[in-house]
Write a structure and sequence with these properties.
Oligomer: single chain
Structural class: alpha/beta
Helix content: 25-40%
Bound molecules: zinc ion
Number of strands: 14
Order of helices and strands: HEEEEHEHEHEEEEEEEHEHHHH
Strand content: 15-25%
Shape: globular
Length: about 325
């Protein structure tokens, strides 16, 4: 799967962009060789470690009796994730949490749950995995029974694991319609399930998977309600974001929404809205080389979300 397909998917929502990396899209679809990806392990304290590579990063929580793992990337990364965990703990994986229905967040479920781990996810994620779905115009076949979540929830859930309180929250229609925000209370770490931008860039909401601008703002507000000034917020890639970055992202989205809504109310077309450059004062902070979400892209995503434009890919339900 090469870039033209991704370019098609992105263009379909009216977005033409220079593409080199898209968080949440399996890196194979970006022409990246998984065998060459190295996992960088970062100790976030209190038993929590970030396993980072290029998109779809994982978190682990190491307890006395076992390991809790957030997200399992694609199948080809299973052995590397196992090896990275083994450097930190020899205990078995007891719990896996899948944050959302993008293929690079649950692909190695079966292999990593083989030792008997429970797999926890939002109700909608299990539904999608069981039936198969489409995201980024990529057809994801039904998952094998061994890969399916064994514990699902609707709105919120709390796990008690290794002395940590792990709170799960579902923000509706945010990055996707199956997101789980994960809050490690003691470690003061939140996994954002793609609702903040990777590596400090603009956030991306996948309207083809039920995501939306409004829902992303609600998700960021929820995380702000959980955070203090020392919280680390984990995106799909890059170093964890600070609460200040999260707050700035939320404020940027709220301002952009108001600007684009005003232009829509004035009767402007999508191209006319883009031409006014409503992100002009935001781009210096939120556009990075390698991040496909440019200011114009962000404007189009905001416009289309506010207008309820038919998304690029309609997931099979
Ligand atoms: Zn994603």
């Amino acid at each position: 799967m090469k870039l033209p397909l991704l370019a098609w998917a992105v263009t379909r929502v009216g977005v033409a962009a220079a593409l080199s990396a898209l968080s949440c899209l399996p890196v194979a679809a970006q022409g990246v060789d998984y065998s060459k990806l190295d996992i960088k392990t970062t100790d976030l304290g209190r038993g929590v470690y970030l396993l980072g590579w290029q998109g779809g990063d994982s978190l682990i929580l190491v307890g006395d009796d076992g390991v809790l793992l957030i997200d399992t990337s694609v199948a080809a990364m299973g052995d590397k994730i196992n090896a990275a965990i083994a450097k930190v703990s020899t205990k078995p994986i007891k719990v896996i949490i899948n944050t959302h229905a993008h293929a690079d967040h649950f692909g190695a479920n079966a292999a990593l749950a083989k030792g008997g781990a429970a797999i926890v996810a939002h109700d909608t994620l299990r539904e999608r995995m069981a039936k198969g779905f489409t995201a980024f115009n990529q057809a994801i076949p039904p998952s094998a029974p061994a890969a399916l979540p064994t514990v699902t929830y609707a709105d919120a859930m709390t796990l008690h694991f290794g002395g940590e309180t792990v709170q799960l929250f579902h923000p509706p229609n945010a990055h996707t319609d199956s997101d789980t925000l994960v809050h490690f209370k003691r470690a003061n770490v939140i996994h954002a399930s793609g609702t903040i931008g990777g590596a400090g860039g603009y956030p991306f909401f996948d309207m083809g998977s039920g995501g939306s601008l409004a829902g992303t703002i609600v998700a960021e507000d929820k995380m702000l309600s959980l955070a203090d000034d020392r919280t680390r917020i984990v995106a799909d890639e890059g170093d964890p974001a600070s609460t200040e970055t999260l707050k700035a992202s939320r404020d940027m989205l709220v301002t952009l929404r108001a600007r684009v809504k005003k232009l829509i109310d004035e009767g402007k077309t999508e191209d006319e809205v883009v031409a006014t450059k409503p992100t002009r004062d935001f781009d210096a902070r939120w556009v990075h080389p390698g991040n496909f979400v440019t200011g114009d892209t962000m404007t189009r995503l905001a416009y289309e979300s506010l207008k309820g434009v038919t998304p690029a890919t309609t997931p099979r339900r």
